[in-house]
């Protein structure tokens, strides 16, 4: 650290550059994580809305499910803005959701007998959606932890206007094309 400069402050004539965010692997991982988080939010919303009247605990369990939907949509927004710090939180909540799905899926399939109230969708379809949600969480956990290890937060200083000198697609020193 240069004496007299605050953390996050850039020297005159320089700009901050985040090289790991420009890598195609990081961009793809971020896209997949956002897609998984949004798919989780949508799937949890469908399960909550369709099974609201039958959820154990009534409205309180439905409220917990609705909070999960809102959190996962918010996490998707944060990850889309390259917020790496939310990834372990999303992985931890996904682990809890996997446990909920593993415990609760069987009860939806057990409701397919005569004498049980029916939800907006058939109980077996909601049970299938719960199983899919659980499997989706396992994939989300793996991608979130992989994305966390990609070091999205690393910053470097570089002279302003020298962005073309760095990274993929940079022209060689003499400007001549290189053989493939």
Describe the SSE topology.
Blueprint: E1 14-17, H1 24-51, H2 59-80, H3 87-110, H4 123-148, E2 156-159
Helix pairs in contact: 1-2, 1-4, 3-4
**Helix/sheet category:** mainly alpha
Could you give the order of strands across the largest sheet?
1-2
Strand content: under 5%
The radius of gyration over CA amounts to 23 Å
What is the domain total for the residues? 1
Shape: elongated
Could you give the distance between the termini?
40 Å
Number of helices: 4
Number of strands: 2
The H-and-E topology, N to C, reads as EHHHHE
Regions with pLDDT < 50 over 5+ consecutive residues? Answer: none
Largest sheet: 2 strands, antiparallel
Helicity range: 55-70%
Notes on the protein architecture:
This protein is mainly alpha-helical. It has one domain (16-160). Helices cover 56% and strands 4% of the residues. The chain has four helices and two strands. The protein has helices at 24-51, 59-80, 87-110, 123-148, and strands at 14-17, 156-159. Strands 1-2 form a two-stranded antiparallel ribbon. Helix 1 (24-51) runs antiparallel to helix 4 (123-148). The longest helix is centred in the first third of the chain and has 28 residues, at 24-51. It starts with 13 loop residues before the first strand and ends in a 21-residue tail after the last strand.
List its traits:
mainly alpha; 2 strands; 56% helix
Quick gist of this model?
This protein has 180 residues and is mainly alpha-helical.
């Amino acid at each position: 650290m240069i004496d007299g400069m605050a953390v996050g402050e850039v020297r005159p004539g320089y700009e901050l550059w985040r090289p790991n965010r420009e890598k195609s692997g990081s961009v793809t991982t971020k896209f997949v994580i956002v897609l998984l988080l949004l798919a989780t939010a949508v799937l949890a919303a469908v399960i909550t809305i369709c099974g609201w009247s039958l959820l154990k605990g009534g409205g309180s369990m439905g409220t917990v499910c609705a909070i999960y939907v809102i959190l996962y949509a918010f996490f998707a927004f944060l990850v889309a803005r390259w917020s790496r710090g939310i990834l372990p939180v999303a992985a931890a909540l996904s682990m809890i959701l996997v446990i909920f799905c593993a415990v609760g899926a069987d009860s939806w399939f057990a409701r397919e007998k005569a004498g049980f109230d029916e939800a907006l969708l058939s109980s077996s379809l909601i049970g299938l959606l719960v199983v899919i949600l659980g499997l989706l969480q396992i994939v989300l956990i793996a991608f979130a932890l992989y994305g966390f290890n990609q070091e999205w937060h690393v910053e470097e200083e570089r002279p302003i206007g020298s962005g073309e000198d760095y990274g993929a697609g940079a022209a060689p020193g003499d400007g001549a094309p290189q053989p493939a």
